[in-house]
Each structure stands twice: as structure tokens, then as C-alpha cells.
Write a structure and sequence with these properties.
The structure is a single chain. With 332 residues, the protein is of the alpha/beta class. It has eleven helices and seven strands. Among the domains are: 6-139 and 149-171, no CATH class; 229-264 and 292-330, no CATH class. A seven-stranded mixed sheet has the order 2-1-3-4-5-7-6, covered by helices on one side. α6 packs across α8 (222-267). The chain is globular.
């Protein structure tokens, strides 16, 4: 790994990535966040990596500078699993830096950059301007003490919705414009009435251009921006829909499973060991049945959304973790 080369990795094709695809803008974002004042964007070498972790799970931007590796991601839907996502991203990037697997058995230490994971949040849930989340919060036996975890990873989360983190946004013009753009798009989407999403987004884009917001990008990348907005809003709306559906499914499933277990325990006779084993087997069977039913229901909902014109086949296939060709068979 060359000591003098700074790497920038880019996953996905979100609006956030499009806005910060130029090295100058990415460097300005880093300077605003870190308080640094780097001036030479040519220190960064941009590369694109394939979606190698999970279907639909992509990091937006990451770069190495001064032996520190910074990963930037934008999130419009909150998940408490961001530290785990960050760890998986870092593991994948570290893997890319190893020339061959035999290095892992070398007597020489493989030197690695220090990783940092920053999430720019612009979802609809209420969030503070800044907070941290730790991987160790998810450990089953974690007792809450920061120092007791032998492995940990921190996600630094900044709320960049309009009205939040104004000092940070004032230091990076493109980040401020991105925040204004998202707010404008949401306003047009919410008030679109009988208009199509495409028409609402087109009006939002035109308004931003008139107000000197992301003008150069919106004029140059209008088609990509429109495609990205349609995909992102499809997936965001579907995620919210699934949240409510899964709440209903698992609430009823849990009630039925509890009743079955209660009856089985009431009728059971014999040793406590046998009852415990039977309860655990029953719970596992219930979980498997629940997962299978949820997956089947998920696919049926996706098919319905496609037939109603609410989702495109590629988006629905990604949510179902299938190829578009495989998903097409469900539509027959």
C-alpha cells in the first residue's frame, strides 16, 4: 500500500454521492467536518467498488488522508445498525488494501489507516444535531461499560436536515445546498396532489435552479438526479410501509406463539429439562415459520406495488433480494 496515495472509494449512485462526486467538493466537506484546511484535491484518487457486501447495502464515499480513513454515508432512514454497517465497510476496504492473502501470514505487520465513520442523516425521524452510536451497544452480554468490549466501532451521526447543524452547513456550501435541495424535494412531493412523482420532482429541481441551489449539478446531471430521486423515494416509502406491516405481523405472531407455548407448558408433564427443550424447539420452529411467512408476504406486497405502479421492477427486485429476471417470474 503506497504511503503517498490517498484513496477515495465510492459506492452507489445516491444524490448525495452525485453532489460530492468531484474531488474539490469532497475535500471541502472533509475540511468543514474536521476543521482542517487542505487545499489540494489531487491528493485524492477516486475509485468505484462493486456492491460486494449485501444487496442494496452501499457506502457513499470514503477516503484516506494523513493515515486516517474516513467513510461518509448519507442515510434518509434511521437504523440502529449503522455501526455494524460501518464495520463491514471498513473490513471490505481493508480487504481491498491487501495485495494477496498470504500477507496475512507474513512476519511483517500490515499497517492500516485509522478508520472513521460519519453518517449524514436527513430522514424524517427526530434526531439531535449530533450523536454517536456504538457497535458494542448491540452485544448481547454488553453491560453498558464502554471499556469492556474487546471490539468496538463508532458511528458519528450528523443531522443535516434544514434547520439543523447550521454551523457545519455554513462551512460547506454544497452540503448546505444539498440540505436545501432535499427540503424542497420533500415539500413538492408532499404537496403534489394528483401530480406524478416525476412532475413533482421536476418542479422541485426547477425551483432549486431558480434559487441558485445545486445549479451546476442539476443542469448537468438532471437525468441521473431524477432517476436517483425516484429510486430513493420508492425505497424510503416502502421501508416505512414494511415497518408498519411487520409490526402487525410480528405482534400477532408473537401472541399466537405465546398462546401455543402456554398451552403446551400447561399440558406438559415430565422433567423440567424436557419442558425447556420442547419450549426452545417450539420457539425456533415459530421463528422459522415467521421468517418464511414474512418473506412470502414481503414478496406479495412488492408484486402488488409493482402492479400498481408504485415501484419499478429493478427497485422491487432489490428489496426482495432477487435479480430483476427472478422477480419477473413472480408477476406472471
Amino acid at each position: 500500500m503506497s504511503e503517498n496515495v490517498n484513496y477515495v472509494y465510492a459506492y452507489g449512485d445516491t444524490v448525495f454521492k452525485i453532489v460530492f462526486q468531484e474531488k474539490e467538493e469532497l475535500l471541502a466537506l472533509y475540511n468543514a467536518l474536521s476543521g482542517k484546511n487542505y487545499t489540494n484535491p489531487d491528493d485524492l484518487v477516486v475509485n468505484t467498488l462493486q456492491d460486494v457486501i449485501f444487496l442494496g447495502m452501499k457506502n457513499d464515499l470514503s477516503f484516506l488522508i494523513d493515515s486516517h480513513m474516513h467513510l461518509f454515508e448519507h442515510q434518509s432512514t434511521y437504523t440502529p445498525n449503522m455501526p455494524l454497517r460501518g464495520l463491514l465497510y471498513v473490513a471490505d476496504l481493508f480487504r481491498q488494501m491487501i495485495d494477496n492473502r498470504h500477507q496475512l501470514y507474513s512476519p511483517a505487520r500490515i499497517m492500516l489507516p485509522t478508520p472513521h465513520f460519519t453518517v449524514f442523516y436527513n430522514g424524517r425521524d427526530e434526531m439531535p444535531d449530533y450523536h454517536q452510536e456504538r457497535l458494542s451497544d448491540a452485544f448481547l452480554s454488553h453491560d453498558g461499560a464502554v471499556d469492556d468490549a474487546e471490539l468496538d466501532f463508532v458511528a458519528h451521526i450528523y443531522n443535516i436536515n434544514k434547520g439543523h447543524n447550521e454551523e457545519l452547513l455554513s462551512k460547506c456550501r454544497k452540503l448546505w445546498e444539498y440540505s436545501q435541495f432535499v427540503a424542497t424535494v420533500r415539500e413538492h412531493h408532499a404537496n403534489r396532489g394528483s401530480k406524478s412523482k416525476e412532475d413533482a420532482f421536476a418542479e422541485a429541481i426547477d425551483e432549486c435552479i431558480r434559487n441558485n441551489i445545486l445549479v451546476d449539478i442539476l443542469r448537468k446531471e438532471k437525468v441521473r438526479i431524477m432517476d436517483s430521486l425516484l429510486t430513493e423515494f420508492d425505497m424510503d416509502e416502502y421501508k416505512e410501509f414494511l415497518k408498519e406491516e411487520y409490526k402487525k405481523i410480528y405482534s400477532e405472531e408473537g401472541r399466537e406463539l405465546g398462546l401455543r407455548l402456554g398451552r403446551a407448558e400447561g399440558r406438559a408433564e415430565g422433567r423440567e429439562e424436557g419442558r425447556a427443550e420442547g419450549r426452545e424447539e417450539g420457539r425456533e420452529e415459530g421463528r422459522e415459520e415467521g421468517r418464511a411467512e414474512a418473506e412470502e408476504l414481503n414478496r406479495k406486497r412488492l408484486v402488488s406495488c409493482v402492479k400498481n405502479g408504485e415501484l419499478t421492477v429493478p427497485t422491487a427486485a432489490k428489496l426482495a433480494q432477487m435479480t430483476p429476471e427472478e422477480f419477473q417470474t413472480l408477476l406472471k
